[in-house]
Amino acid sequence: MTTITLVQGDITWQSVDAVVNAANSSLLGGGGVDGAIHRRGGPAILAECRRLRASRYGKGLATGRAVATTAGELDARWVIHTVGPVWQGPGSDPALLASCYRESLRVADELGARTVAFPAISTGVFRWPVEEAARIAVETVRDAETAVEEVTFVLFDERAYKAFAEHVG
Question: Tell me, what's the pLDDT at 18?
Answer without folding.
Answer: 98
